[in-house]
Design goal:
single chain, about 25% helix, 7-stranded antiparallel sheet, about 170 residues, alpha+beta, globular
Length: about 170
């Protein structure tokens, strides 16, 4: 009798327990304000296309990077001075002149071409990424994403479309 009552109580607690929170999205323009300002101040850098937010998989975020001649590279690490190391890599946003994309072709509204590459692991892992071409500039978003119902592919396609819709920052 007690086992049955205990099972009912435990089941009731499980049903009444709150569902896990949805993946939190990170407001990128706020996080990357310093990098955005540096890129906008560089006449050679391509227009900065950045999605408004992404569900990044890290508790702490430390952005670095900026313009590099005719390109830019913004990195986000989970620790200070990560330097793109696999153990602390969170996300990377790059842009440079170019018209080729590698990976599985996908459609991104507003892009001339786009391709998605899923998470791949060998000696080390490479996070999923989307590459898309807008006005002769190749943009890449690579990120360790929190798991969502949409999945990495749909999340990155939506992020690329949102970056294009938002326009240059």
């Amino acid at each position: 009798m007690r086992r049955g009552l205990l099972a009912v109580v435990i089941l009731g607690l499980l049903v009444a327990a709150p569902a896990p929170a949805a993946a939190a999205t990170i407001a990128l323009p706020t996080l990357l304000a310093k990098q955005i300002h540096a890129i906008k101040g560089n006449a050679k850098a391509p227009p900065l296309l950045l999605p408004p937010a992404l569900p990044l998989d890290a508790k702490h975020l430390y952005p670095t990077g900026g313009p590099l001649g005719k390109r830019y590279d913004i990195e986000i690490g989970a620790v200070k001075n990560c330097g793109g190391a696999n153990a602390c890599f969170v996300a990377d946003f790059t842009a440079e002149p170019g018209t080729t994309v590698l990976g599985k072709r996908v459609t991104v509204t507003g892009a001339a071409k786009a391709a998605f590459t899923p998470l791949s692991c060998g000696a080390s892992c490479s996070p999923p990424q989307i590459v898309f071409i807008v006005h002769g500039i190749r943009y890449t978003i690579q990120a360790n994403l929190k798991k969502t119902a949409k999945g990495d592919r749909a999340t990155l396609i939506s992020a690329a479309a949102a970056a294009i819709t938002a326009g240059p920052r």
